[in-house]
Amino acid sequence: QERTLVLIKPDGVKGNYTDRIKNTILESGFLILRERTQQLNDETAAKFYAEHSSKGFFSSLVKYMTSGPLIAMVLEKDDAVAAWRGLIGPTDAHVAKVTHPNSIRAMCGLNMEENCVHGSDSPQSAEREISFFFEDLSAG
Ligand code: ATP
């Protein structure tokens, strides 16, 4: 069993996609271990996306991620990281609509930035990101 961190980003929450996304999660056989709603501020959003701090889109990304509450969830199943990345589709929702029409980002995303969901990109990132939102959940 593996864990991954999922975010329903502020655009996904505002667009009322939470229930549809959760249904997909449960139908796909994930266990939802934890869930919380949180409003990020500039500092916490910048910390979460620190790997992108030198990118041109960073300030826009921080503004987007702080634009409203998001929902963080810890999912568990075999190969959870890859399984969730497969379900959400490519980063750019425009691309997702063409190449992965049944993906979550095709359903609720708008463009390269507003793509409605996040998924950890490796088991190592998952552990870091899970402790970021759920301080009491340690690795393993
Ligand atoms: P995530 O980490 O959120 O699951 P990802 O791994 O598909 O997304 P990353 O390359 O890690 O994509 O980028 C993190 C987030 O930054 C993206 O999900 C998107 O919201 C935003 N982003 C990425 N590239 C761009 C860009 N070129 N312009 C604007 N926003 C971007």
Automatic annotation (TrEMBL):
Keyword Cytoplasm: yes
Domain Nucleoside diphosphate kinase-like, residue spans: 1-140
Class of enzymatic activity (EC top level): transferase
The protein's Enzyme Commission number: 2.7.4.6
Residues that bind ATP: 9, 57, 85, 91, 105, 115
GO molecular function ontology, one term from the record: nucleoside diphosphate kinase activity
Keyword Cell membrane attached: no
UniProt entry keywords in alphabetical sequence: ATP-binding, Cytoplasm, Kinase, Magnesium, Metal-binding, Nucleotide metabolism, Nucleotide-binding, Transferase
Domain of life: Eukaryota
Record: active site: 118 (pros-phosphohistidine intermediate)
GO biological process, one term: UTP biosynthetic process
Reaction(s) catalysed (UniProt annotation): a ribonucleoside 5'-diphosphate + ATP = a ribonucleoside 5'-triphosphate + ADP; a 2'-deoxyribonucleoside 5'-diphosphate + ATP = a 2'-deoxyribonucleoside 5'-triphosphate + ADP
Family of the protein in this entry: Belongs to the NDK family.
Protein's recorded name: Nucleoside diphosphate kinase
Portion of the parent chain present: 18 to 157 of 166
